[in-house]
Amino acid sequence: MLAVAAGHPPAGAASVSLEVLGDHPVVQYPEVTSAAFKRDRTPDRTPSGRRPVPKGPVGGTFAEMLTLVVPIRDAPPIERGPVRLEGSTTERIRAFVRAAADSVARAASVAADRVPVTLPERAGPRGSDR
């Protein structure tokens, strides 16, 4: 997912390529973020390696960096999830979580429509082979 301001050019796109990172300064994660995570999510170059990714300002917190989510069609999946303190949940955070979950559900639905699934046949009701 790409987090951008509502008026930012990629904000109206259904999805973007990782190559778009070379077109705009990318907000950097706060100092407390691990170096490995920063390398993974804010690369120095686009995937083609032809263009540098301009570094933008450093966000004070991760929550400050999130305003709009745009799917990145050629990014590897992030196997992480949002974490927050229950007492610090705001409507904006709930809206982000809903948008992210809806985006994942749409992507899974599209993928399921494209990939035929063959399930193994079951021998019978559970426990009937005893």
Distance between the termini: 49 Å
What oligomeric assembly is this protein in? single chain
* Poorly predicted segments: 126-130
Record field, number of beta strands: 4
Structural class: alpha+beta
The fraction of residues in strands falls at 5-15%
Which strand order do you get reading across the main beta sheet? 1-4
Order of helices and strands: EEHEHEH
* Main sheet attributes: strand count, strand direction, barrel closure: 2 strands, antiparallel
Instruction: State the helicity in percent bands.
Output: 25-40%
Overall 3D form: globular
Mean pLDDT: 77
What does this 3D model show about the protein?
The chain has 130 residues and is α+β, with helices and mostly antiparallel strands. It has one domain. 27% of the residues lie in helices and 8% in strands. The protein has helices spanning 35-41, 62-65, 91-114; strands spanning 2-3, 26-28, 55-58, 69-70. It has a two-stranded antiparallel ribbon with strand order 1-4. The radius of gyration is 19 Å and the shape is globular.
What descriptors fit this protein?
130 residues, two-stranded parallel sheet, two-stranded antiparallel sheet, 3 helices, 4 strands, alpha+beta
